[in-house]
What does this fold into?
Amino acid sequence: MSAVTPRAMGQALDRLEGADKVRGLAPYAFEHPVPHPAYLSAVRSTVATGEIVGIDCSQASAQPGVLAVLTHLNAPRLGTDDGELRILQSGDVAFRGQFVGGVIAETSEIARHAAGLVRVEYRERPHDVDLESSRERGQLRVPQQTMALFPMDIDKGDVDSALASAAVQVDCTYRTAWYNHNPLEPHTTIARWTSDGLTLHVSTQHPRGVQTTVATAFRLEPDQVRVFSPHVGGAFGSKGPRHSDVILAVMAAQLVPDRPVRFALTRHEMFTQTGYRTPTIQRVRLGADTDGRLTAVSHESIEQTSRLKEFAEHATRATPTVYATPHLRTRQQLAALDLPTPVIMRAPGECPGMYALESAMDELAIACGLDPVELRLRNEPDTHPLDGLPFSSRNLSACLREGARRFGWESRDPTPRARRRDGWLVGTGMAATTYPTLRLPGSKVTIRVTPDGRHTVLMAAVDIGTGTRTALTQVAADALRVDLAQVELRLGDTAYPPAAPEGGSAGITSWGATICEGADELRRRLAADHGGTVPAEGLEVTVDMPENPHLKQYAMHAFGAQFAEVRVREETGEIRVPRQLGVYAVGRVVNPKTARSQLIGGMTMGLSMALHEASLLDPRYGHVVNHDLATYHVSSNADVGTVEAYWIEEDDPYVNPMGTKGIGEIGIVGAAAAIANAVHHATGVRIRELPITLDKLLPYA
Amino acid sequence: MDTEITLRVDGADHRLTVDTRTTVLDALRERLGNTSPKKGCDHGQCGACTVLLDGQRANSCLALAVAHDGAEIVTAAGLATDGELHPMQRSFITHDAFQCGYCTPGQIVSAVAMLQEAAAGWPSAVTFHPADGTDGGADAGPVDLAADPDEIRERMSGNLCRCAAYANMVPAIQEVARS
It folds into this structure.
């Protein structure tokens, strides 16, 4: 692995597709112009669990303009065993809101109206949707596996003895809510069956994944399925794994061959059909000596999954990485409930987990009478606390110090509820943040060069708003050692070589390393076969993502420190966050402009998590009650104050040829803890359940 | 039931037949192929569908097309004239005031309309209750957006951005307000 010399990398370029996006001309999946489209509207179960005993489509079918009605009685048998995707295979209902049918019509208005005319009769069964009482009822189980790459349960040393004998102890339970991703662009599909196969326009983080999933489900060869995803209007994890909406759209298109069928989930449906972040109940126990040095850490997380499919979010994943401790334990347990299946959401694991751990660290700092920054500095490990591997680079201490300096932390009086300004209680808080530097398998790239020096780089990667199109072009230019103007990067089409999913902050690492390998191969071929000159017919190479020889030698993680100022209205409990500041150590920053947007976007989503967001379940019916953007509040412009993101110079020769560590997720990690800790500093009240809303503070007014 | 209406969209006249249930947003996107305004919620809650409807910003998903026969509509695509981006569009690019771009056309239309509203002296909640604790009021005259980012934050809060580019939108809009 040879390092790439930065020329284009490091430039704060505007987004390449900016001029299209500001005019609304960049086409998202649903908007692709297609001839004579039909429209699909879904029919969803109105019971949480049960069985369909009767279904009457006569009224719907009789509507002028209705082309077909889809139910479990006429749906094709699917070739997948994925419980979430196996819709319309029987009359069984596994959760409220599950697809039980669909109407295909000439217009969206007709389809929607007719979908409401499909009469479905159910025999209901009792349902269980209660995570909180699952533990008492003995309904918890250990997951088969959490998300890959990291051990699920960890035991190091003797945690129980160490906790019992610790001079200072913290034992607290924290709760995070059910969160929905809610990208502004809904999950959308255009599906068209022709004699040649299936053409799909899908809003996805993984075109190749859609291709193989749909091919398997409908018993096709992958090359019979072509997937286009040129622009994606946000995703945050929900568009990573495939969901049943794509299946329903393809089923519908099968009923009207040759006609493109357009299907966009409604915002209501987005709360049920596209996954969500599981609520968590996390118990964190910390033991420390009187100097604040950790002697034991125990972190247990209880989460939910569905009965259709197991998904476990590894909320404890970051815990072994952050602090030195001789005794360490992590545990995960799951309740399988009659609910939709949760899924990855921005920084799965680290995001809820570091909220709990970093809140507990704040409580420990107070218990020890130590400054929270100093407490963290005292617990810096020399090597990875679990396996003793050296870090490829680790600059948490530098981020803590630089963050404290920029934020003005040094003058902080630790006394809670001690500052009042114009009726507001004022406080500040901080938290550490981390995210692993991941690489995801499955990428190839094709690079073509022509005698005029133009390079075309082809891979079925996607830009979901992260700035990939721009940053990856910068990587390609440097890898190829040419000017930006000589590189054209084409993404979002499965006709190009497959690419690993967009996720895990691993896009630039996985795709970029593949492009660097392709550039090396192109140079080798030019030198060996063509004397260093591009032949008249041009030259093309295709390569796989290379191995990283350092993977087993080093622990690879990004780090950072987040700070927040909070004001709480003393009489009403209203909470405002006038300032957030983060300093990160994330390796090389490819494009400072888009990178900063990623970081402040993550921090703001963390503010949203801390104060606003929660999907509220009605246990009687098993559905999210506030399933829209008026009542599921995501931060709006007026909720957000100053958000500052900085990074320190960090040179990491081991992570990949670019030296990048991933930036899409670390901004949300720790943001909620920094705000929760600031709320405590402002009010003296520790709220251990997100979101922190004014009703939770009012009793202490 | 279908009915025939005319719409003037981004300077061009269109005669079209719409279902009486068709919204202005769907008329633009599905009938006229103008997908500049986006559908984020279809409930008037996210602002992605914002257009200028007879000169004022409106959620086009909440307006029935049949009720706006003869209306003049400007989308973000129509703000750019003769291939030149509107100053607000240029400022959004320079400040990276968007990521995925899906809310962006709505944000930009909203921002352009908001500048006019502030210049005309329309108050906001912040105008009545400024952060400095002084008395605001409805008849205070034009509002200086460049000098008061809280006014921008308040007036732009009908347009959600899940990528959360707010902290870049505010200076992007301030810069245009200044010029």
Observations:
- The CA atoms of residues 38 and 49 of chain B lie 5 Å apart.
